[in-house]
Specification:
The structure holds two protein chains of two kinds.
Chain A lengths: L9 H7 L11 H11 L1 H18 L1 H8 L30 H37 L1 H15 L3 H9 L3 H6 L3 H24 L9 H25 L2 H5 L4 H29 L3 H8 L4 H37 L11 H8 L8 H28 L1 H6 L4
Chain B lengths: L5 H31 L7 H6 L9 H8 L5 H10 E5 L4 E2 L5 E4 L6 E6 L4 E2 L7 H11 L1 H8 L2 H5 L5 H12 L1 H18 L1 E4 L4 E3 L2 E6 L3 E10 L5 E11 L22 E2 L5 E5 L12 E5 L6 E2 L4 E5 L4 E11 L4 E10 L3 E8 L14 E2 L4 E2 H6 L18 H14 L2 H30 L4 H15 L2 H15 L18 H38 L3 H8 L4 H23 L1 H14 L5 H10 L3 H29 L1 H5 L1
Parallel strand pairs in B: 3-10, 11-17
Antiparallel strand pairs in B: 1-18, 2-5, 4-8, 6-9, 7-8, 9-10, 12-15, 13-16, 14-15, 16-17, 19-20
Helix pairs in contact in B: 1-20, 5-6, 5-8, 8-9, 11-15, 12-13, 12-15, 13-15, 14-15, 14-18, 15-17, 15-18, 16-17, 17-20, 18-19, 19-20
The chains are: A mainly alpha, B alpha+beta.
Amino acid sequence: MVAHSNLTAPGLVEMNKKAPQSDRIETFAELVWRRFRKHKMALISAVILVILGLISLFAGAIESILGVSHEIASLDIVNLDYGWPHILGTNELGQDVFTRLIYGGRISLSVGIVSAVTSALIGAFTGLLAGYYGGLTDSILMRFTDAMLSVPVLPLMIVFAALDLDALFGTSNPTAAAIMCAVIAVSVICYRYASVARGKSDQSHSFGRNIVDGVIVGCFLFAGYFLLFRVVDWKAVGSGNLSSVIKLTLIIVFFGWMTVARLARAAAMQLKSMEFVTAARALGASNNRILLVHILPNALAPIIVSATLEVGGNILYEASLSFLGLGIQPPVSSWGNMLNNAVDYIKTTPMLAFWPGFLILVTVACFNFFGDGMRDALDPHQVMKSGEE
Amino acid sequence: MPTRGDGFNDMKHLLYRALQMIVIVAALSVVLFGLLSAMPGNPVDMLITSNPRVRPEDVIRLKKLRGLDQPWYVQYVRWMRGYYEPHRPATVESLGLVTVQLDGKNGGSASVDLKTALRDPDAHMSAAEIQALIEKGSPTLWKTIEKDPAVINASQADKQDVILEQLAHHDPDFHAKLMQSLSDEATGKLKISGLFGATVQGTRVEQRFAEAGNFRMWFMITNQSGLQTVASVPVQVLQTPPLKKGAGGFVQSLLDAIPAQIVDDPKTFSVDLAPYVLAGKEMPVRYVLDKESPGKIDATGHYTHEFAKPGQTAIRFSVVDAQNRVTHGAFSVEHGPVPDKTRFNRGFIYVFTGDKSAMGFSSNYKRPVWELLAGTDESSSPVIVAGAAPQTFLEKVQHYLISMFTQSGRVGNTLQLMVPAILLSLLIALPLGVLSAYKQYSWLDYIVNFLAFLGISLPVFWFGIMVMALFAEQLQWFPAGGVQTPGIQEDGLWAVVADRFEHAILPTLVLSIAYIGRWLRYMRASMLEVLPADYIRTARAKGLSEKVVILKHALRNALIPVVTILALSVPALFGGAVLTETVFSWPGIGRLEYDAVMNSDYYVAIVVFLIAAVLVMIGNLLADLLYVVVDPRIRTK
């Protein structure tokens, strides 16, 4: 999955593309659109996704037009069949299934998209840093990613979802945390010395530089600890209607950023030895500028593609956990927890279970097709690999 | 690098990987333990209270020894290594009132025999000692107990308990007699000493009283580990002839009974004695601490002491009122549990030494975790199969197979689901992937690709529900869930096999469907990358048949990246197994893990998770090995 995104850099793209029909030079956006258009399924998927997005955006309006309620349980209209105004009938509590599906779509879509974007941001940040600077950051990140990849994720998610965030973060000992951070800082310093001594590190740092690095790492860790354990009011996060949504998003982000991190790292490692980076450095650009202005835009393609593909996976995770009763908690509806309730009525009203799952399938498939189209459009290496151009 | 031979590098690589995995699993167990301690409802307490052998009165002592008042990492170490069980102080049953007649000038002598009231919960005998006693009493009985599977499988730590349980089961009378003699022997070892003028002869406590009134006769029991317990007998001393009217009546005791005290803080202890003094409000009293008792007592009756060592200590004191009437009182303070060095509760690490019971006990299923996972095997409890006992070799084999199939345990059930699912997915995905790559842009390619996409996007659990609703509920072709029909083992081997197969069809299909899509796409992509390569053109140019070119030259190279992907998807497969098992009520370890987390069954949660992680690691190692087999270049690198 190495990104040959240098080809999408504006200057190179123009050399790469076929002779234009007119004299006007095709812009990057036009090029992407031309490639994306070719993928018919991706186009259809994009349309479906837009429709789904709009419907869930106007959920409130649709509910008031139909004059039904997705939340209020009324026992005299339990398990209704199709009809008007209950288009898809009602569930075992007398709530309208159609509007519940719409509201559930709102939650499922936003959990999927928000967690994908957040994990892409985190992954891009860590991956680019690791790939560009290499060294300790790189090896820690990669060991951690290896570990996460070789662990059954769903059972771990189950454990996380059953956790009490307040108990996890609310009660802790700052002294112990400070000691832990100090230990890690000291081990960073030792590691630096060891790697220099073994000749593994090409940079030979001065004594002071190593110490400063270690102290910085320790301070960062402690700041992170402070933010997580002291500043954020987990009791407030843990209560309220949307607490389960926030928690689930956090869990999915926690387990989801590694793929993007790996891609970004690979892209950064490849790009940092490119001529245009060397040129920028020769012109006196700082590391930050090189990373932000030169490497990030060129590494964006695989990150975007991967984030798009991840939305589908995240929706599936959300649905799986909610189905197990660990994710989104009622009265907030999501496709997953609608399925959870419907299983008990599978004999009498199987369609209750059909619709949420069907929508999950459609949405996830659309995101996958859309992501595939994006890959074709943004990541020409893949296109060339499948022999189209 | 100097070349040291291919095998060396392979071995080095594999060893490195294995080491890495061990580190990951160990780190995972630490993280998991830390996380579990953040679960609602004080979960780690369950590690103790779920153990059936823990007596309720010991829970507080055990919690201290187990480190439950410590941070989670201390608890983790104790969970791994194990902990000593606590010494228990001797107890005395409450004794009834003793009435004494004053006899002229000699006074009256109160006396009570503690033999039946005294109990030493700390008394225990090793399994060997109990065995010797039983063998002496009835050798034939020992032979039956010895062969009992429960005794064979019991760990060293609780073997004696299991033997006694079995004895009670086989011969209740003998068990009662043995227990009586054991307890007699144990109480004989206790040291009883009288307090405040009481004397002790054997188990009999005596005291002389010179005046009439209500008193308490105090005594102290010290067990072998030095834990002190104080107790008292109420004594009523009557005057003969009775006192004349108006002569004062009985002298009232100044003190109420003081219950045994427990130190919450590891060191400091304080108790207010004033509430227990009956006369305190009407007249001022002084408190005098006994010389042998540690600590301080102030004028208001506030007792304080900092205990340096854990144990149970008797505190004696006297209450003196304005008329110099003296009442003695005592109470015992338990300041920390004393570990019993002879009885060690083994931690999880002892699983690696072969002690299966060290895995713990499931509070949810009320069974040892090991039994849950592996099922009860043939040696521990023979399956009841209808008809006579197996005679011929063939019958024995059948009998063995039936018990193996029907008691496969949680791990066995999951493997029975996962291995066929993996094989099925491979069998469908790889040929289809090769075919659709070979015929790129054909209608077959499009359809296969589209279906593969749908397969990836399919929510496994929903597909399971739908399949079950259709085939099990509506059409009734297959059973709706479970792993086998109860009682099927009586219908013979083939019925068992057919029944399990029937139950497994739907879950296996559902589990494999997602992986067919994923692996098919990888296979196709990998094949597409290989097909335009030069060596394929060369192979064709040599005039090799298309079959040989595709299967031998292309496929073998295309498989290399696919093998890695296969290994990496084993964890995900396990996750899929959790969902599939939930939908189909398949009693596998995925379902077990879910139930354990939901029901705070923490021994099970940790162990199952570690097992899953190890399974995944083994999958990864296998993939590494396969990688070497598939790609000869690695060997020569």
